[in-house]
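Structure (tokenized):
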């Protein structure tokens, strides 16, 4: 009995050893099976969304930004008309002066003496004239009585005429002396802003040898001289003549200034004329514009850019600047959404920039949809999901709902993602809950 029990025990022990030896192999097979799940097909990538604007002809002013320089309306040098010693300066440098204001005083003493001498000479000549007239009148009476000869009368008459001429000369000398005395007050020739004084008190000046004493510039209104190429000006005239561009209703051009800091000058200017001669070195003509300048914000010599309205394109096609792409050789092109919701490249010829848009000379027609956003997601022939960003009538930017659509979509996506995460979390929690009894059962079996 004991021997039989021992044999059974030994047989059970051997069977248990074989099962233990087979257990790692089974676990290894289970691990390999777990690492090689059934292959799942890759998900189809979503169709990329792109923003677009629909091309529609519209009336757009033909605006040109041209370089220009500010120039004073009038400029005058202050000069002395008489020589003498400067005894006083009567203006504040850089101030506003009016025409006729006294700026400098020159020593008047020598000219006062000249005036007194001229007045004395005039008085002497007037006394001589009185005597000559009396003598001529007396001889005229004697001649009528035949008591004086004709020769005597002729001599008296000539003496009277000579005396009259001497009086006229003396009056002119007195007037000249008076002018010289008046000119010792050096006055402002025009109204404007005066610059720095170019000499000081105590300087002896000579009209022919001295330069300007100061400079006055009239700054309100003020000129801006802008330049435009002859070729562009001729093209503009051809477009106006052919009717491609419509003339302005009042046949004038309002001009606005862009300052060097990018700000817009608040007051509009008026185009006065275009020069009739082109600069042979640059091939450009000068256009002069007049601007009001009540607060002296514009100074002569300033560099500005003038935005001039030269006509109206009644059937213009324009696209946002970001829609224009450039090829390696610099040519312009756009992406167009076709009827089958695929995209293609399309070359275009661009004109000038108007506001935030490029004018398109050729390459697009009304009704085409031009991509403005999402370029990095697309390739030629790719299927897309177009989102309309066309501006509302009368606006230059995209629609507000189009602007807000991405944010709304983002919020919606975030909500979906949150819901998905929550569902994933619930699923994971459920899996964990279901896994707990299974683990307990395994433990119980062990």
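Design, position by position:
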């Amino acid at each position: 009995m004991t021997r039989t029990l021992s044999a059974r025990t030994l047989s059970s022990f051997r069977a248990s050893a074989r099962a233990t030896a087979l257990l790692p192999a089974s676990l290894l097979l289970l691990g390999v099976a777990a690492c090689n799940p059934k292959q799942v097909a890759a998900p189809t990538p979503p169709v990329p969304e792109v923003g677009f604007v629909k091309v529609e002809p519209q009336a757009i002013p033909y605006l040109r930004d041209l370089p220009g320089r500010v120039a004073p309306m009038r400029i005058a040098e202050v000069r002395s008309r008489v020589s003498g010693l400067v005894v006083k300066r009567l203006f504040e440098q850089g101030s506003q002066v009016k025409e006729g204001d006294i700026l400098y005083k020159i020593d008047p003493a020598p000219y006062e003496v000249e005036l007194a001498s001229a007045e004395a000479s005039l008085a002497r000549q007037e006394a001589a004239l009185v005597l000559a007239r009396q003598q001529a009148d007396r001889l005229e009476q004697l001649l009528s009585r035949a008591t004086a000869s004709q020769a005597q009368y002729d001599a008296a008459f000539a003496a009277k005429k000579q005396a009259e001429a001497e009086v006229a000369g003396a009056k002119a000398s007195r007037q000249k002396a008076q002018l010289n005395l008046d000119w010792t007050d050096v006055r402002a020739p025009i109204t404007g802003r005066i610059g720095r004084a170019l000499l000081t008190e105590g300087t002896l000046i000579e009209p022919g040898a001295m330069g300007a004493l100061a400079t006055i510039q009239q700054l309100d209104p003020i000129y801006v001289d802008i330049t435009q190429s002859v070729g562009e000006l001729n093209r503009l005239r051809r477009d106006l003549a052919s009717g491609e561009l419509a003339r302005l209703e009042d046949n004038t051009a309002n001009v606005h200034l862009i300052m060097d800091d990018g700000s817009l000058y608040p007051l509009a200017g008026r185009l006065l004329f275009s020069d009739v001669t082109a600069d042979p070195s640059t091939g450009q003509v000068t256009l002069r514009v007049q601007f009001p300048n009540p607060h002296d914000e514009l100074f002569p010599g300033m560099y500005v850019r003038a935005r001039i309205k030269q006509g109206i394109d009644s059937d213009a096609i324009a696209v946002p600047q970001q829609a224009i792409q450039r090829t390696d050789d610099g040519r312009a092109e756009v992406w167009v959404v076709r009827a089958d919701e695929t995209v293609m490249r399309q070359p275009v010829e661009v004109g000038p920039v108007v506001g935030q848009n490029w004018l398109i000379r050729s390459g697009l027609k009304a009704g085409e949809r031009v991509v403005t956003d999402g370029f990095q997601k697309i390739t030629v022939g790719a299927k897309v999901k177009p989102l309309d960003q066309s501006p509302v009538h009368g606006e230059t930017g995209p629609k507000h709902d189009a602007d807000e659509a991405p944010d709304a979509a983002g919020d919606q996506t975030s909500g979906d993602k949150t819901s998905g995460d929550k569902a994933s979390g619930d699923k994971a929690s459920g899996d964990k809950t279901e896994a707990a009894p299974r683990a307990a059962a395994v433990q119980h079996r062990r």
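Reviewer-requested clarification: Residues 82-106+184-211 form a domain with the OB fold (Dihydrolipoamide Acetyltransferase, E2P) fold (CATH 2.40.50.100). Residues 77 and 215 are 4 Å apart (CA to CA).
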